[in-house]
Amino acid sequence: MNLTITRRHRLYRGHRARSLNITEEELVEVRARERTFDGAYWRTAMKAFSMGMIILRLFTRSFYKIGIVFVAFGMTILGIAVLRRKAAGDVFDQRQPFQTAGFWVMITTLITTIAYIVLLILIVRL
Questions:
Q1: Contact 94, 27 (CB under 8 A)
Q2: How far apart are CA 121 and CA 126, in angstroms?
Q3: Tens digit of pLDDT for each residue in 40-62?
Q4: pTM higher than 0.90 for the full model?
Q5: Cα gap 91→120, rounded to integer Å
Q6: What crossing angle do the helices spanning 102-125 and 64-88 adopt, rounded to 10°?
Q7: Where does the sequence pass through the membrane (predicted)?
């Protein structure tokens, strides 16, 4: 009697090997890693950059410094996203366990704290 369990595989194109058979669970893991690396940092950067552009276009000159801080914050987060992606290596390699990069989290926290302090000072001075 043959009691083999058949597993459904999806063909994932675009990988270095041109094709990769992965299970549904592995596909979920790949998607989670993609959201973390390409999603979170890029979304944050684009939202901050967009907010800065809205402030620069809609408000008076007294708000320009606030808009510039948002634009600078967005560009900095975008730079962090690019550098983190390059430093991470192959995050889609299933043989390596996923680890949060503590260094990049600390840098992002520091940049965000500085931006918020500068924004608070600028708002109080209005």
A1: no
A2: 9
A3: 888 899 999 999 999 999 998 88
A4: no
A5: 37
A6: 180
A7: 63-83, 103-124
